[in-house]
User: Which sequence fits this backbone?
């Protein structure tokens, strides 16, 4: 199957923008692209005139929880939930996320190993959803942050065994809880929860199997422990200092700031039913979270988009809200798009497959009626998206897309 899309602006994700261009898709991959001035007239495949639309890579959310529904107390509904219900919730949220323009996500904590089943169902074409990299259950200390959907493990040997159980289940990434957090009662974000020995055991065990690692790391000491242990990504990183930022630069570790999580908690607050301890912790750490992101970006740390969707009022399908939060830190629309595409793919170690529009990459595309380089917030508007492709396949019916094209004539 071969198609060519022409007369469009192409945001490649590499930093290059083709103002009047075309791209050719063959067997689900990008086969060619270039300027309209150089397009060949003897093309025999399907030729689709986009009439000035914009094409960009499908977005990537590096941090979400598909099993969580954005409830005021997000872990409460999970207590006693059966796997069948969790599966239905995850499939529904996966579709909402894909429909918002996110073609790849990394699920960093689900109930039992339900996420692995949902991932496989999507890969096998049984249901529609984004490409999922799944952490299964997060690994935490006894009573630590996220224990409700985690494996509790204490000491290097228990952590090592917990990682091995995750690897046996077939996870794509191992998540370790280096510090306390916002949404768990009785713990604080600044609290160090795993020692260097425990973190190192977990990271080493995952890396031996060729599996990437992520650290929930909010407090400064926990961030540094995770970095010294060899972690691959820092999630949240709310209290970074120069030493931590330099360690991230030295070890090529990206920051996934998840600014949406705190913003939604603070804007909805107690009146929406969010427990007071969640609101209070979010307000306390909001300024440091934004400042850390700004300082890390200015220093050259790669920023990869992640939303923590599923936390209070941080709804699946509204993932692009994070774009506006990043814009408030001083990043340009183009830099933000790179954080949601190329930088995110690199952070997840899948940049050989997706994240940019380049020859040989999978055709994960957003076809947009408005150029987000002019206003990044248009990506929050579902009506802006004319079509979404994963590996060359449209998630909408072809006739619906044709109707969109005709409506712009």
Assistant:
């Amino acid at each position: 199957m071969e198609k060519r899309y022409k007369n469009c602006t192409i945001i490649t994700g590499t930093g290059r923008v083709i103002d009047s261009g075309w791209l050719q898709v063959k067997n689900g991959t990008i086969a060619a692209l270039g300027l309209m001035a150089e397009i060949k007239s003897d093309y025999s495949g399907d030729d689709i005139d986009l009439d000035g639309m914009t094409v960009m890579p499908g977005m990537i959310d590096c941090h979400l929880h598909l099993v969580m529904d954005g409830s005021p107390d997000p872990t409460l509904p999970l207590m006693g939930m059966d796997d069948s219900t969790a599966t239905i919730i995850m499939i529904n949220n996966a579709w909402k996320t894909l429909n918002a323009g996110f073609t790849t996500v990394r699920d960093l904590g689900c109930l039992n190993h339900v996420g692995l089943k949902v991932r496989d169902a999507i890969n096998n074409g049984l249901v529609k959803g984004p490409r999922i990299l799944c952490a299964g259950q997060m690994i935490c200390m006894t009573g630590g942050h996220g224990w409700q959907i985690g494996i509790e493990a204490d000491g290097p040997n228990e952590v090592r065994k917990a990682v091995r159980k995750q690897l046996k289940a077939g996870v794509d990434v191992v998540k370790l809880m280096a510090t306390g957090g916002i949404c768990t009662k009785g713990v604080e974000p600044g609290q160090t929860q795993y020692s260097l020995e425990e973190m190192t055991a977990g990271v080493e065990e995952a890396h031996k199997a060729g599996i990437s690692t992520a650290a929930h790391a909010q407090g400064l000491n926990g961030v540094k422990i995770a970095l010294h242990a060899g972690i691959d990504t820092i999630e949240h990183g709310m209290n970074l200092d120069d030493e931590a930022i330099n360690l991230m630069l030295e070890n090529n570790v990206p920051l996934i700031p998840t600014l949406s999580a705190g913003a939604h908690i603070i804007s909805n607050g107690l009146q929406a039913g969010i427990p007071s301890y969640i609101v209070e912790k979010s307000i306390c750490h909001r300024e440091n979270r934004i400042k850390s992101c700004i300082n890390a970006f200015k220093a050259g740390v790669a920023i990869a988009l992640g939303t923590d969707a599923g936390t209070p009022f941080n709804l699946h399908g509204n993932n692009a809200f994070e774009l506006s939060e990043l814009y408030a830190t001083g990043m340009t629309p183009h830099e933000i798009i790179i954080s949601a595409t190329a930088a995110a793919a690199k952070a997840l170690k899948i940049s050989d497959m997706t994240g940019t529009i380049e020859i040989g990459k999978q055709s994960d595309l957003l076809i947009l009626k408005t150029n987000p380089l002019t206003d990044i917030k248009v990506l929050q508007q579902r009506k802006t998206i004319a079509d979404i492709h994963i590996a060359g396949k449209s998630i909408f019916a072809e006739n619906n897309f044709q109707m969109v094209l005709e409506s712009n004539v």
Remarks:
- DSSP finds twelve helices and 17 strands in the chain.
- The chain has two domains: 2-57+356-407, 59-347.
- The chain has a mean pLDDT of 95.
- The two ends are 26 Å apart (CA to CA).
